[in-house]
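Running this now, will post back.
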Amino acid sequence: MSALISKSHSPVYTTRGLVGSASPQAGAAGARALREGGNAFDAAVAVAAAESVTLPMMCGIGGEVFALLYHAASGKLYGVSGSGRAPMGATRDYFVSRGYVKMPFDGPLTPAVPGEVRAWQTILDNFGSRSLASLIEPAVELAEEGFPLPPRAASYFTNHYDKVAKHPAAARTFIKPDGSAYRVGDVLAQPNLARSLCRIADNGPDEFYEGALGREIAEAVQEAGGLITESDLAAQRTALYDDPPSVRYRGHAVHATGLPSQGALTLELLSLLDGFDLAALGHNTPACIHTMVEAKRLAFADRLAYLGDPEFVRVPLDELLSPEYAAERRKLIDPERTAKNVVRAGELAHSAAPSPSTSYFNVVDREGNAVSFIHSLSVYFGSGFVAGDTGVLLNDRAGRGFYLDEGHVNVVAPGKRTINTIHAYMVFADGKPILVGGTPGGDNQPQWNAQAIANVLDHGMDVQQAADAPRWAHFPSADPRTIDEPVVLRMEEEFDEETKQALRERGHDVTAYPAVGTPGAVQLIAIDHERGVRSGGTDCRSDGYPIPE
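Update: finished.
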C-alpha cells in the first residue's frame, strides 16, 4: 500500500465562506469579494478573472467554462456551459483538403470560440450581487502590476518555452525581454491583457464578443490563417440549465456538469464502482486500483462511442448512467486480470454513435451557496497563439477535441462543440451539498475525481488527505492526439514496488508519471451542515491553499 504524501497538512476550517484555488492571488480575490459582501457566485467570477491572469498556462478569457451552482435559498442546483463552438468555417473537408490526418495541435486553426467572459456575466445576471467591473478589478491589478511566479506555475514557462516561442505575440507575452524563460520569483506583468480586461469592465462582455476588442481578436486570428470571425464571436452564448446529471454513490447523489462536458464520465465511473466494496479492498491496494482501472476503461469506451454535442448527435445519457447498465458492464471486470480489449456495450437506444490544461476552483459562502467551477485553455498555453496586441491567449479546444474520422461522434463540424474533458462535481446528502470538488487534468479528471471521492466516502479521509493522496492515471483515454499510444498505468512515485509488481501480475504495464505535466490540482470543500462548518483541502501538487473569508 502507499502512504499519504508527507507534505499533507490539516484542512482549513471555517464557519464562514471559503475559497479553494491553485493560485493564492486568485483565491485571495475571491475571499476579498466575500468579505466585501459578495456571495459565492460573485466570488467565483472574481477568482475566475484573477486565475485568467495568474494561471495563463491553464485558463484565460480566451478559454471556456463549465460550472455547478448551488443556490441555497431555493435549494436548487444549476449547471453552466460556457463551451465554445467550432468556427463556421471549420469543416472536415477544410482540414482534410489541407493534408491533415488529425486536427492541428497548436496555432490559430485550433481555437474554439471562447466562452469564458460571457459565462461570467450569465452567472452574475442570474445569481450575483455585484457588478462585473468591480469583480474584475483585482485581475486588472494583477495583470497591470504583475505578480511573482510560484514554483508550480513557473515550471510551465520553462517546460513549454518552445510552444509560446512559435508565435510572436505569445513570445512577447510569456518570454522575458532578454529571451529567457520566466522562473520562480520572476514578476509576470501582462499590460495588454490588463487593457483588454479594462475594456470588458467598462463596456461589458459585448466588448469581447461584438465590440472593438472582438474585432481585433478576429482580425488577428484571420491574418494568421485561422478561422474565427466576428460573426463566430457574436454568436457565442452561455447555457444555464437545471437538473444536472447525477448518479447514486454510497447512498449519496453525485452531480456533474452536463454535456458537452464529460461530467457523465465521472458519473458512469462512480456508478460502476458503486457495485464494489472499495473500503474492504483497501486504499490504493493492487485490488482496489485494478478494479478502478478496469471500470475506467469501460467508461471511456462508452465515452468514445457515444458522448458528443447533443445538438449534433443523440446521446443515450439516461441509459449510460442507469443502475441497470452499470450492473451489466460491471460483469466484464475480472478481479484478477486486466481485459485485453474493452469496447462499448453495443448500440444503445437512441444513439447515433459510429460503428471512438485547465484550472479548477470552488467557493462556499456563509449562506450556503456553493460553486464548483472549471475553466480551461485545453492543453498548456492553449493554442499558443495570442491575438495581436490584445493579450488574449486563445484555447486549442477545437484542435484538441475534434476528430477528422468521417462519421465519428466528435468529427469536426461548423458550430459544433466537441465533447469536453473539463467538468466539475458536487456530492449531495439529504438534498444539500456535502462535498464540492474537481481537478484539472484532461482525460485524467474522471479518474482523479473518482479517486478523490472514494478517498472521502470509502476510505474516510479528510479533504486535505484526499487531495494529497498518491494518484494513478490510466493512459491513453480519448484524446485524439494520444489515442494510439501504448496503454500504460502511470503511477506517482509514492507507490511502493510491491504494489506496482502486483499490478503488473494482473496485466498492467506500470510506468512512472511523466515529470513534465500536471499530476492534478484537486480542490475539495466539505460542508458539515449540522455543525455549520466548512473544511477545505487544496492539492499539495499546486501552489494554492484554501483561503477563508
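The chain has 21 helices and 19 strands. More later if anyone needs it.
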